[in-house]
Amino acid sequence: MLDLLSLEIPSVKIVRPARHGDDRGFFSETYNKRALHDCGIDIDFVQDNHAFSSEKGTIRGLHFQIPPFSQAKLVRVVRGSILDVAVDLRVGSPTFGRHVSAVISAKDWNQILVPIGFAHGLLTLEPDTEVLYKVSDYFSPEHDKGVLWNDPDLGIDWRIDEHTAMVSEKDRRQPRLKDLPGVFRYEGAEAP
Ligand SMILES: Cc1cn([C@H]2C[C@H](O)[C@@H](COP(=O)(O)OP(=O)(O)O[C@H]3O[C@@H](C)C(=O)[C@@H](O)[C@H]3O)O2)c(=O)[nH]c1=O
After folding, report:
1. pLDDT, tens digit, for every residue of 74-107?
2. pLDDT tens-digit map of 116-139
C-alpha cells in the first residue's frame, strides 16, 4: 500500500509507502513493483545506490544519463533529510528548464520518483544523511552528464549560502542549461 502524489510537474511524484509500527520498531515495503503498477507506474529498476554525506550542506548533482542509458530514479532517505530537485530537460515540454523540489526525509518516510528526462540533484539538510535510490538503467560513465547546480537560468532556491555548499569538483564544472544539447524529447504525456 502506498500514497502517490504528483508535484507541479506531474510526472515527478512523491511516493509514501505504508509504515507498520509496533513495539519493536516498524516494517515497511519500501519498493513494491505491483503497487506502483497499480498506480500506473511501470519502471524496471536494475540498480540500487546508496550515498552517504557526512556534512549538512552537501550538494550532489544535477545529474542525468543520456540515452541509451537514461535513468528514472526512486529516491529515499534512511537517515537525515534532503532537499531533492528535479529539472525538466525534455525538449518541447511546457515546463522545460523548470524544476520541482521536495524535502525527502527519514522522518517523513517519503520518496521521490524522478522520471527519465530530468536532471536530478540533492542538498543534505542534516549531517550524516544517507540516501538510497533505485535507477532504471546501469551506471555508464560515458553517458553520465550534468548541469550546473546553481545555473542562474534554473533559478533553484537551494536555501543555502552558495559559498558554503560542499560540491564535488566534477559538479563545479558542469555546463549551464543553455549550453546543453537537447537529448530528451517531451512525449506529450505526463507519464514516467
Ligand atoms: C552514480 C554512480 C557513480 N559511481 C562511481 C563513480 C565515482 O567514482 C563515484 C562517485 O560518483 P559521483 O560523484 O557521480 O556520485 P554522485 O555525485 O553521488 O552522483 C549521483 O548524484 C545524484 C544526484 C544522482 O542523481 C545519481 O544518479 C548520481 O549521479 O561513484 C558508480 O560506480 N556507480 C554509479 O551508479
Report:
1. 999 999 999 999 999 999 999 999 999 999 999 9
2. 999 999 999 999 999 999 999 999
Residues 102 and 84: beta-carbon distance below 8 Å: yes
Share of the chain above pLDDT 70, in %: 98
Cβ of 61 closer than 6 Å to ligand 1, yes or no, is: yes
Distance 51 CA to ligand 1 centre (A): 8
Q: Which of 133, 138, 143, 163 is catalytic?
A: 133
- Ligand 1 neighbour 121 (Cβ under 6 A): yes
53, part of any domain: yes
Query: How many domains, the chain?
Result: 1
Strand partners, 99: 87
CATH of residue 105's domain is: 2.60.120.10
The cell numbers describing 32, all together, are: 513494491
Active-site residue, selected from the candidate residues 37, 50, 63, 99: 63
Pairing of strands 73-79, 144-146: unpaired
| Range(s) of the domain holding residue 162 | 2-20+28-183
